[in-house]
Specification:
It comes from Branchiostoma lanceolatum (Common lancelet). The protein is α/β, with parallel strands linked by helices. Helices cover 29% and strands 19% of the residues.
């Protein structure tokens, strides 16, 4: 059972979480959206899903309680549970250009492809859902400022090809999007990239993680290392299974039955997907032949 999360919660002097109210197997209790800053105009990180009637009143309440408005929106990645609320927020708060909605660009080869959570974006150029309003594209290391908060963009691909975490310099905290969750583990498109992203986040030695789903993580460096250790353990088990089979080729499902012995059978298909990602990583880093 996912940890209960309040609809609105002040997490620090400069961070307020507004729950997206879109619970599900990948979103836990829902998408965490964050109002960041201490001034009269603040940054919103992620926007939740489309068509969630209770979210907008909660976002409005959180802003009105401090007499603040929105400065701009930052998006951690393209999944609909993070971008889906953009158009309704734009309309409800009567936003207008030059108000910015910013994110990292997608890899063009990834546009239109189905991802690990089963999401398939529309073919062609990315859209915000607001007619005539496009994304402002950020680059790794870009700094976004508002009163009381300095955010640094960190390129963390793996979960998606455009994934961005944000370092909150004043707190040595990271908004991790779906790279690291508050509980459980996440899914990924590319494990090779994902592991490098975890190592990159670990290098910042953050004290706190504000995740895209689940409760905040206070011992952030330990949590990131747990994610790394879990994947390394699975990789070692897969290599051991392949060595046991010697020259006999194994399918991903055959490896699942050797490695995921404590996993219920109805989850074996998903586990086979993870094994396939591990095999691709092993090829990519030169551990096994392609």
């Amino acid at each position: 059972m996912a940890t209960a999360i309040p609809k609105i919660e002040v997490l620090s002097s400069r961070v307020t979480r507004v729950l997206g109210l879109n619970p599900g197997p990948f979103t836990l209790r829902g998408t965490n959206t964050y109002i960041v800053g201490t001034g009269k105009s603040r940054i919103l990180i992620d926007t939740g899903d489309a068509g969630i009637p209770g979210y907008l009143p909660n976002l409005r309440e959180a802003l009105q309680s401090t007499g603040t408005s929105l400065q701009e929106i930052l998006i951690t990645h393209w999944h609909h549970d993070h971008v889906g609320g953009i158009s309704s927020i734009w309309q409800a708060f009567q936003l207008a250009s030059p108000f910015r909605i910013s994110k990292l660009p997608r890899n063009p080869s990834g546009l239109g492809s189905k991802d690990a959570e089963g999401y398939r974006p529309p073919q062609g150029e990315e859209t915000t859902g607001v007619p005539g309003v496009g994304y402002t594209y950020l680059r790794e290391g870009d700094v976004i400022k508002t009163e009381g908060a300095t955010l640094k963009a960190i390129y963390t691909p793996g979960h998606t090809d455009d994934h961005m975490a944000l370092l909150l310099e004043e707190e040595n905290a990271v908004f991790s999007g779906d790279c690291v969750l508050g509980e459980g583990t996440t899914v990924f498109e590319d494990l090779y990239d994902y592991m490098k992203s975890l190592q990159k986040l670990a290098g910042f030695k953050p004290g706190t993680i504000y995740p895209g789903h689940g409760p905040i993580v206070q011992n952030a460096t330990k949590k990131i290392q747990e994610y790394i250790n879990h994947r390394n353990m699975r990789e070692s088990q897969i290599l051991a299974a392949m060595q046991k089979a010697r020259e006999t080729p194994l399918t991903a499902m055959e490896i699942v039955k050797m490695v995921y012995v404590d996993t219920p059978e109805h989850l074996h298909k998903a586990a086979a997907g993870n094994v396939t990602h591990h095999l691709h990583k092993l090829v990519k880093d030169g551990t096994i032949g392609g």
